[in-house]
Amino acid sequence: MAEAAVSFAVETLGNLAIQKVAFLQGVEGQVNWLKNELKRMQSFLKDAAEKQVNDASIRDWISEIRELAQDAEDVIESFILKVETPRKSRGLLGRCACFPEHVYHLDKLGQEIEDIRDRLQAIESSRKRYGIEDLGGGTTLMSRRSEVAEKRQLSHWQRDKDVVGLEEDVEHLLQRALLQEWEDLSVATIVGMGGLGKSTLAREVYNHADVVARFECRAWVVVSREFNPKEIIKGLMLQLVEPQKQREILEIMEKSDLQNVKHMLHEQLKGKRFFIVLDDIWQEEAWESLSSAFPCEERASRLLLTSRSRDIPRHARYVHELQLLDPDKSWKLFLKKAFIKNTNVKCTEDMENIGREILRKCNGLPLAITVVGGLLVKQRQSESEWERLLKGLNSHLGRSGSSVSAILELSYQDLPPQLKSCFLCLGFFKEDAVIRASKLVNLWIAEGLLSQKEKKRKGWRR
């Protein structure tokens, strides 16, 4: 958060220096000095973020920078408000009359910047004492935008064209459950710990050509830990009815109780061979609250569930337990993720040794491997960068005790400042919630992370 605060302060100061130069006569040099000094401090935050894991003093130092940057932004915005409002609300004579007031505010701004200068000097002394070095990163939000746009094209959370290590699992699910000649409604379950790729496997099966050809209708819904049976059934219904009927069906379901909504789904599926995926079921109660909505006819329909618990449901006809990746499959997945941007780059023997040491920390967990590989996508493919990642991973592992938590924490620390703040805003929403883009963008605007101008330029309206 300190990086984000400093970035916003630098951008605010830069905008002031460019757009309000007429207001700054006498303190323009101080404003530019403060902007450049904050920008210089940005370049030390990357090293500080890595060292704070094991040093409370450095965590306090980062907090001091964050508070100073926020104070600097407040000082500038307060000055703009005080000198601009009278100019807009008064005529020519009024503006001339308020000139002494403007001089007063300029003088006060200069004094406040001097106070901030004293605090910065103390922070600089502490930086030298703690051995915090310049690792780069002194970039503003404006210079990050092209980088962020490029990263969006490389999102690892989109469906992979080349899935590693799941080919046999897909075949087993198809042949032993989904394409079996069972005439009744049958349930299959994919079980395994979080991050193993249960949803990825279910998605591969869901989109498999044989499944698409065999079933008349398909639908997918995420159940999650805090489930709402009525909302889950509504989500299924909207996928099963024709688009022109969705609004009418939605209005009816909004006014109906759970029993009637379940009856609507039952009638919609009746007489059809359907394939439904209930993803991420945590509790037996979730299954019990939904099961009666699915017709038990001899139409060879299938339900596919994913869960961390083997007990959900207990009466599944086929249970597929997903396993951790072996070292070779782990390495193959890692290379795909780490070199997605640089497919022509060769992995040297020394880099492979470091990479395999990194993978040992991942314990064959696909989520951990994917995140670690993603951390290396934008880096120079060199031994030093891979060693830096391994060092950071070891440091975070010592703090969290969990390889997954350590890797996710490291990936968060690697985010650009603005994206850290944007990411944290997702904490306002429930787990597995469907988030409207317009709602999230408006939240970012309210938090000062995005401007209305950027919203219009990007065309975020939905």
From TrEMBL:
The keyword Repeat applies. It comes from the Eukaryota. Residues 5-90 form the Disease resistance N-terminal domain. Keywords: ATP-binding, Leucine-rich repeat, Nucleotide-binding, Plant defense, Repeat. One of its GO terms (molecular function) is ATP binding. One of its GO terms (biological process) is defense response to other organism. Pfam families: NB-ARC, Rx_N. InterPro entries: Apaf_helical, Disease_R_plants, NB-ARC, P-loop_NTPase, RX-like_CC, Rx_N, WH-like_DNA-bd_sf. Residues 168-342 form the NB-ARC domain. This is Disease resistance RPP13-like protein 3. It comes from Sesamum radiatum. The lineage of its organism: Eukaryota, Viridiplantae, Streptophyta, Embryophyta, Tracheophyta.
